[in-house]
Write a structure and sequence with these properties.
Length: about 160
């Protein structure tokens, strides 16, 4: 178990993370963590000494209990926002298109409890239609138009809600 790449200061919290985009039968896998009331893409922190590809595969294995393989690197998002505790956040997240190694992976909604370095996190996974994604329910919402494109790719995005 490695050290997460994150920094806390008086003014900002920084985190370096990865996110996985899994699409099957026109639906995308999203997660609601600890009944937050919004969806995000599965993923988590990159650990020191770990590549972003290794991190996204590890995070999806930890969260879903299943192995994934990387199909394509999609881009990076610099995200500046206020978190649920009122802290300013600076997040850099790498996004990958993934597929489950087991082609028979369930396409029904499911729930798991993840033990993340001693913290238990309730993960409610949902498969939602790509065409029916509500931008008000997905964080960061700037991703929604990119997720709905026929050819998934976005390159480098900067999203700042602090201004």
């Amino acid at each position: 178990m490695g050290q997460d790449i994150k920094v806390k200061t008086d003014d900002f919290n920084f985190k370096f993370r990865v996110s996985g985009i899994v699409i099957k039968n026109g639906k995308i896998l999203v997660v609601d963590m600890d009944d937050s009331g919004f969806y995000c893409l599965p993923g988590g922190y990159v650990e020191l000494g770990e590549t972003t590809e290794e991190a996204v595969q590890r995070e999806l294995r930890e969260e879903t209990g299943s192995e994934v393989k990387v199909k394509k690197y999609l881009g990076v998002l610099e995200n500046y926002f206020i978190n649920k505790y009122g802290r300013k956040m600076h997040e850099i997240s790498f996004y990958y298109l993934l597929e489950f190694v087991d082609s028979n992976i369930q396409t029904e909604d499911f729930m798991r409890i993840e033990n993340d370095k001693g913290y238990h996190i309730k993960l409610n996974f949902y498969w939602i239609d790509l065409d029916a994604i509500d931008p008000n329910m997905v964080k960061p919402e700037v991703l929604v138009p990119y997720l709905q494109k026929e050819e998934l790719e976005f390159g480098h995005l900067i999203y700042n809600t602090l201004d």
